[in-house]
Amino acid sequence: LPLCLRECLDGVVSGGSRSGPCPSAPHLHAPFFQIVDISVPRIAAWNSDELPIYEPGLDKVVKACRGKNLFFSTDLDQGIRDADIIFVAVNTPTKKVGLGAGRAADLTYWELAARRIALVAETPKVVVEKSTVPINTAEAISAVLHGAGKTRFDILSNPEFLAEGTAMTDLDNPDRVLIGGSMSESGQAAVAKLADVYAHWVPRERILTTNVWSSELSKLVANSFLAQRVSSINAVSAICEASGADVDEVARAVGMDSRIGPKFLKASVGFGGSCFQKDILNLVYLCQSMGLPDVAEYFHSVVTMNDRQKERFVSRIIHGLFNTVTGKRIALLGFAFKKDTGDTRESAAIEICRRLIEERASVCIYDPKVEANQIWMDLTAATRLDRTEVEKYVTLCDSAYEAAAGAHALAVATEWDEFKGLDYAKIQDGMVKPSFLFDGRNVLDHGALRKLGYIVYAIGKPL
Ligand code: UGA
Question: Which atom of ligand 1 is nearest to the CA of 222?
Answer without folding.
Answer: 5
